[in-house]
Amino acid sequence: xxIHTSIASHKTMYSIRRSCYQALQSRTAPPIFTTxxxxxxxxxxxxxxxxxxxxxxxxxxxxxDRLATTNSRILLPKLLTKEQEQLIYKPRNKAxxxxxxxxxxxxxxxxxxxxxxxxxxxxxxxxxxxxxxELSETKEDWENVLRVAIGYESAGIHLKPEWKQKVVRHLNxxxxxxxxxxxxxxxxxxxxxxxxxDILVEVLKAARNIAAQADWEQEELQKAxxxxxxxxxxxxxxxxxxRAKGEADYRTHPSVIAVPLEMAAELAYRHEGDTAxxxxxxxxxxxxxxxxxxxxxxxxxxxTALRTLSATPPSxxxxxDEKTRVFFASLSHIHALxxxxxxxxxxxxxxxxxMPMPAEAEATQQSIFAALQEALKALEVLGARPxxxxxxxxxxxxxxxxxxxxxxxxxxx
Length: 413
Hints:
By secondary structure, the protein is mostly helical. Among the domains are: 103 residues, no CATH class; 161 residues, no CATH class. It is 58% helix and 4% strand. The chain is built from 17 helices and four strands. The strands form two sheets. Strands 1-2 form a two-stranded antiparallel ribbon. Strands 3-4 form a two-stranded antiparallel sheet. β3 and β4 form a beta hairpin. α10 runs antiparallel to α11. The longest helix has 32 residues. It is elongated, with a radius of gyration of 26 Å. The protein starts with a strand and ends in a 7-residue tail after the last helix.
């Protein structure tokens, strides 16, 4: 029989193709349900726990297999009731499931219930996600990456911060910035929120990359500006920064304000764009720099944090893990400072005498540039590894060096 139980609050349909009471009851196996109810659990109210994602066609057979395994081995077990869990995990039920299959529908996906060995059959969640990312190439593949992230969250598997950063970083590198925006728009489903500073830095990088990778062409600059302004608008949502206060309210952080300013200023500088927008953002940036203590070298800021890391002697970091931690912490600060530095540089050129707080703007621009140069030197030392293991670090260093050089006109700093 095929009985569907409707959960009105989430409109998710669960169905079992055969009475699990019949599957579990026998002379040799004790009943899962009490004998007083005598009801199949397909007829028992089932609390909503989520649904399984539907994937687009993948580009490789291994990727297809990985996505199928994600649903059947990682997500499905997390979406079952206690009775259903016992059915798939108890070794005594394996033969019954093979002889008389049961199917369950979660959302728009129907899968058979199969015996699962907890110690052998369930893959690492992290390794599975990372491998899917590694294999992804096409736009459909990257859409599937986002659907996997949503599936994890729906199943109560909350992505760790570094997992989310990896998803956003690779979507950016693949030129799938629209999927980053989609992930942010559906933050309650993806778990990817702008409240996480490291996520925010990756998102800001994505906005810049739209324009920088196209050598600041007008059309791509306009796209980048639109993307940045959409991100700023999303910050007002409660799931992002709508309720944030004080230092945790990144809406006023210079790195955030700098990205739309940088795009607007580059449009004005390279393509005779609107200077009114540049003036508006320039005022906000200078106010943000002042509020966050960038004009006071004694205040703890992203700039002073980078200087501190750059000044750390390698001898104070005896283990490779410590060197790696400082290396990537420095990279994060660099990525947060590049848009401020370039926004100040380009905006000062565009606005000239109309630049707000001109002395502070010039001093901050020069201070950031000097800190970036010192950081690059420090990263060369930190990234050195024996036996060629430094390739990963060299690649990261080359990328950030190129990002800085893209912003430089001859004779500027």
